[in-house]
Amino acid sequence: MRLPTLKPREVVRILKKIGFTETRKTGSHLILVNKESRKIIPIPIHKKDMKRGLLISIVKQAGLGPEEFLKLR
Length: 73
Hints:
36% of the residues lie in helices and 25% in strands. It is built from three helices and three strands. It has helices at 8-17, 52-61, 66-71, and strands at residues 21-26, 29-34, 39-44.
């Protein structure tokens, strides 16, 4: 399944649904942490949409498949 391009804030909202929380903002990146799985994911917060390659990487780091990620949308 092909992932669409998404706004960074939409990606953050989806990740919060699965247990990630905002811990800090460093420059133009928002750092999300999941206490249970001990995963840390930096999300670039820019005005543009995220490209597919970056989005695929974030989805893999979160431990989800593309279909699971889009169902949370």
